[in-house]
């Protein structure tokens, strides 16, 4: 069958499922869907080249439509790319091999708020901020405040294991999810167990959390809610150096306190970001810390935190700077305050146990600053998302004057990422904490998992034997032709 | 036209990869397409500049399917003027003959002077009200009120009469040019701006009082830039005068309004001209109880649906946006939704025709003042 005829055949089959008004193949729209927030597609476009585009863009409104779309895709063996808010930074929604992109934003119903169990059930296309505003009116919060909240969808939160600024207390997206409905690549609809805590074998729910559209399409999600805290209080401290700050954070967490936020900036970040956004021109390592909940608990928690921080010579900067940071926490991500082209940059964050995190930080700093010195590479980092056993370092490389040629730029970008990621893995860290894998890091997944990779690849092969689901992502071998 | 080349380039560069204002674009959320949001528009315009795309009807549909109400710029920490970027794109599309057919017909109608409304003089004379031809104050009614909210014009004139201030109207009040500016006919907007300014100047009035929020924005902030000459003439919105008159006692409140009221901020007043306090001060003086504010007010208020002349290209979406605003009003528990702009009033009133939002009455702030002053029941 000639390709253009096949194209039309598939278009008409899609239209039969969703209606002609809910599928588009218009070039301008294909361009708009060719990117997420990953730099490489942007570099491509800026270099005057069209990034990979979807062939068909579809806007289903129900699980049934998605099921039928996947059956159709399986029959033709075409790639399927689920798309939420397109706010991911790893290229997870970039249609590397073309195919059918399924934008889930029409599936944006808040199905149920269970005020007794403190849960909310939603379709995957609900915008994160809209959900937060809606549950706030009933006295609840999702307590998930990622930088992408204004554009991201709940489906995206879960599919990429996202995290927000209050994760230290409330957890990451994977900790908030109660159950899900998923359409498998075959078109079959499955549900995970009603609750996440059980002794009924391995965790099916968590298999699909973080699957980035490679194992199926998430079509319904029940998430945990929390009550809006009676009080949320902030305080800022300035430490002599990052080590003192890290030790303060470690003591807070291992004492099993539950601050909602600990955000510790290294000396470079304190100079570069804190100065720009907060107007605070100081040397050292800046920490903002927050506590929320019942007022009496907050009193006690903040008192204990203060003792720990001052014990590490932390200078108490008072509450105002912390409050200012909270009010302006998203400002960093708006242009022109964010990093954007023509700068080349990447967030190469990793998570490790407390005993390893400083070594990882220094090793990566060394690799980035020394091995890419000719490009004037800057390394900055902060430590947010703290756990009872360790912490994430949110570190970045920045090159103010990268190569202009997109091919050279991609080569340099890949080299830096390879070095940074391998340094994390070698020192006991992980490829990524909360941005996901996409195709940016997919090629490193077998290294990350070692011999365990065959287990994930085997699951992928079983669930998606034709390899139609989001090919090129998460490191899975491609089968779909 | 209102963005320099540098500003245009910077705005496109800022918008093309940035999803941070997605939540502020109500139409994009209704359409549920990336391509119809600020980032999609930015990416498409960038691709055109890069020579990767050509202007076509798809792009026209995208650029005309937005309220373009200023909320995106308001939301943006970098304050990039995405709305003016859209208008720049519309102007290019119109110039290339690619504007949607309905838009072109509407523009042709305005240029031909077609208006469903009566002239201000005719409206007043029907109510046996006579304006004062040489008065120092000129009441500029606007096409919207003349077409569908004539009562607001009459109530305004009764208030003027009560405070004993004479006013004149233009016998053949022309369009201020705002619809043409919004729809991309910049040449038309220039002609109309020059024409309306001349008529106002020729009237001899030193103050123009404007009823419609969009006309107010046009006369205050755009007329001069389109070549109109209103130098030496003061342009004020009706709400400012009402506040002044009630506050000074020139207009006595004889019966406070006991209904529960919420207020919709017109985009052109609140975001573009910072007219946020006057309506609230007025309501504070004429209401028995407290104003019931909606979740989104002032500079962050959601549009009524008429922004960017959306009803011309996509009346269905404009109506959906209006219904969402009505929902927000109803959530306050108020029985009256007041607004300071006749155009918003018409749009919101039209949306109630579906039968939803029973128990919520849409009215103009002017009418509430007239009721409080005992001028109408």
CATH architecture verdict of the largest domain in chain B? 3-Layer(aba) Sandwich
Return the structural class of chain A: alpha+beta
Strand order of the largest sheet of chain B: 1-2-3
Report the sheet with the most strands of chain A, covering strand number, pairing sense and barrel closure: 8 strands, antiparallel
Classify the fold: give the CATH topology of the largest domain in chain A.
Answer: Uridine Diphospho-n-acetylenolpyruvylglucosamine Reductase, domain 3
Shape of chain B: globular
Query: Which percent bin holds the helix content of chain B?
Result: 40-55%
User: Strand tally of chain B, please?
Assistant: 6
CATH topology of the largest domain in chain B: Rossmann fold
Helix content of chain A: 25-40%
Walk me through the structure.
The complex is a heterodimer of chains A (481) and B (377). Chain A is of the alpha+beta class. Chain A folds into 4 domains: 3-105, Uridine Diphospho-n-acetylenolpyruvylglucosamine Reductase, domain 2, CATH 3.30.43; 110-227, Uridine Diphospho-n-acetylenolpyruvylglucosamine Reductase, domain 3, CATH 3.30.465.10; 231-333, Alpha-Beta Plaits (2-Layer Sandwich), CATH 3.30.70.3450; 344-440, GMP Synthetase, Chain A, domain 3 (2-Layer Sandwich). Chain A is 37% helix and 20% strand. In chain A, the strands form 4 sheets. In chain A, strands 12, 13, 14, 15, 16, 17, 18 and 19 form an 8-stranded antiparallel β-sheet that branches. In chain A, strands 5-6-10-8-9 form a 5-stranded antiparallel β-sheet. Chain A has a 4-stranded mixed β-sheet with strand order 1-2-4-3. In chain A, strand 8 and strand 9 form a beta hairpin. The radius of gyration of chain A is 23 Å and the shape is globular. The two termini of chain A are 15 Å apart. The model of chain A has no long low-confidence stretch (mean pLDDT 95). Chain B is mainly alpha-helical. In chain B, helix 1 (5-15) packs across helix 3 and helix 14 (238-248) crosses helix 16. Chain B has 3 domains: 5-99, no CATH class; 120-242, 3-Layer(aba) Sandwich (Rossmann fold), CATH 3.40.50.1860; 252-372, Rossmann fold, CATH 3.40.50. In chain B, the strands form 2 sheets. Chain B has a 3-stranded parallel β-sheet with strand order 1-2-3. In chain B, 51% of the residues lie in helices and 6% in strands. The A-B interface holds A 24, 26-29, 31-35, 37, 42, 45-46, 48-50, 59, 83, 85-87, 103, 105-106, 108, 125, 127, 129-130, 133, 148, 150-152, 330-331, 333-338, 340-341 and B 13-14, 16-24, 29, 32-35, 39-40, 43-44, 46-47, 50-53, 56, 58-59, 62, 75-78, 80, 295.
């Amino acid at each position: 069958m000639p390709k253009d005829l096949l194209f039309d055949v598939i278009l008409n089959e899609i239209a039969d499922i969703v209606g002609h008004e809910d599928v588009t193949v218009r070039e301008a729209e294909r361009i708009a869907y060719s990117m997420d927030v990953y730099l490489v597609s942007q570099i491509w476009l800026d270099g005057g080249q069209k990034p990979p585009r979807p062939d068909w863009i579809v806007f289903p409104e129900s699980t049934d439509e998605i099921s039928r779309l996947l059956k159709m895709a399986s029959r033709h063996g075409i790639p399927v790319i689920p798309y939420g808010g397109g706010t991911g930074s790893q290229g997870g929604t970039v249609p590397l091999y073309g195919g059918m992109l399924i934008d889930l934003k029409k599936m944006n119903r808040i199905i149920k708020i269970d005020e007794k169990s403190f849960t909310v059930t939603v379709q995957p296309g609900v915008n994160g901020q809209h959900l937060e505003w809606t549950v706030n009116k009933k006295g609840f919060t999702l307590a998930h405040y990622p930088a992408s909240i204004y554009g991201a969808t709940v489906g995206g939160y879960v599919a990429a294991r996202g995290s927000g600024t209050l994760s230290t207390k409330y957890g990451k997206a994977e900790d908030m999810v109660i159950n899900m409905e998923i359409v498998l690549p075959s078109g079959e609809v499955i549900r995970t167990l009603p609750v996440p805590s059980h002794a009924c074998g391995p965790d099916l729910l968590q298999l699909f959390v973080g699957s980035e559209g490679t194992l199926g399409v998430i079509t319904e999600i029940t998430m945990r809610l929390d009550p809006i805290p009676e009080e949320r209080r902030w305080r800022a401290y300035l430490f002599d150096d990052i080590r003192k700050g890290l030790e303060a954070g470690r003591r807070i967490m291992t004492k099993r306190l539950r601050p909602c936020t600990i955000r510790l900036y290294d000396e470079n970040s304190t100079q570069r970001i804190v100065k720009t956004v907060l107007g605070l021109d100081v040397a050292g390592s800046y920490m903002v810390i927050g506590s929320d909940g019942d007022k009496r608990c907050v009193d006690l928690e903040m008192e204990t935190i203060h003792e720990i921080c001052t014990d590490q010579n932390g200078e108490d900067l008072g509450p105002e700077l912390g409050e200012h940071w909270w009010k302006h926490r998203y400002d960093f991500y708006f242009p022109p305050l964010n990093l954007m082209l023509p700068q080349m940059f990447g967030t190469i964050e990793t998570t490790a146990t407390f005993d390893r995190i400083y070594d990882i930080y220094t090793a990566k700093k060394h690799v980035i600053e020394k091995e890419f010195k000719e490009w004037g590479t800057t390394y900055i980092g902060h430590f947010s998302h703290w756990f009872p056993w360790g912490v994430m370092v949110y570190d970045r490389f920045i090159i103010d004057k990268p190569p202009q040629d997109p091919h050279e730029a991609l080569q340099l970008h890949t080299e830096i990422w390879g070095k940074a990621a391998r340094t994390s893995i070698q020192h006991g860290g992980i490829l990524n904490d909360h941005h996901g894998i996409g195709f940016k890091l997919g090629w490193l997944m077998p290294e990350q998992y070692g011999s365990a990779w065959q287990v994930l690849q085997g699951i992928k092969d079983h669930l998606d034997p034709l390899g139609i689901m989001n090919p090129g992502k998460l490191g899975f071998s491609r089968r779909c032709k | 036209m209102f963005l320099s080349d540098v500003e245009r380039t910077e705005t496109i560069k800022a918008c093309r990869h940035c999803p941070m204002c997605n939540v502020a674009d109500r139409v994009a959320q209704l359409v549920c397409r990336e391509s119809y949001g600020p980032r999609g528009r930015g990416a498409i315009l960038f691709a055109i500049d890069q020579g990767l795309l050509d202007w076509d009807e798809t792009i026209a549909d995208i650029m005309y399917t937005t309220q373009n109400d200023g909320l995106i710029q308001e939301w943006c920490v970098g304050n990039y003027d995405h709305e003016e970027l859209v208008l720049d794109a519309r102007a290019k599309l119109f110039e290339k003959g690619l504007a949607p057919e309905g838009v072109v017909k509407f523009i042709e109608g305005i240029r031909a002077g077609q208006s469903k409304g009566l002239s201000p003089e005719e409206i007043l004379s029907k109510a046996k009200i006579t304006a004062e031809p040489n008065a120092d104050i000129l009441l500029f009614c606007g096409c919207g009120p003349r077409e569908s909210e004539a009562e607001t014009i009459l109530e305004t004139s009764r208030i003027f009469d009560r405070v004993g201030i004479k006013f004149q109207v233009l016998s053949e009040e022309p369009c201020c040019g705002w619809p043409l500016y919004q729809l991309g006919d910049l040449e038309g907007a220039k002609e109309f701006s020059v024409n309306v300014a001349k008529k106002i100047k020729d009237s001899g009035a030193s103050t123009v009082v404007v009823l419609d929020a969009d006309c107010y924005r046009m006369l205050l902030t755009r007329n001069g830039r389109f070549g109109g000459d209103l130098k030496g003439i003061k342009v004020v919105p009706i709400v400012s005068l009402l506040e002044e008159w009630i506050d000074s006692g020139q207009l006595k409140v004889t019966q406070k309004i006991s209904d529960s009221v919420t207020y919709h901020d017109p985009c052109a007043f609140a975001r573009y001209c910072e007219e946020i306090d006057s309506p609230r001060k007025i309501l504070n003086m004429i209401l028995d109880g407290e104003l019931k504010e909606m979740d989104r007010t002032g500079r962050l208020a959601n549009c009524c649906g008429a922004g960017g002349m959306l009803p011309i290209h996509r009346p269905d979406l404009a109506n959906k946006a209006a219904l969402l605003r009505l929902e927000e009003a109803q959530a306050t528990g108020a029985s009256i939704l007041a607004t300071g702009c006749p155009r918003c009033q018409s749009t919101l009133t039209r949306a109630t025709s579906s039968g939803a939002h029973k128990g919520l009455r849409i009215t103009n702030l002017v009418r509430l003042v007239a009721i409080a002053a005992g001028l109408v029941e």
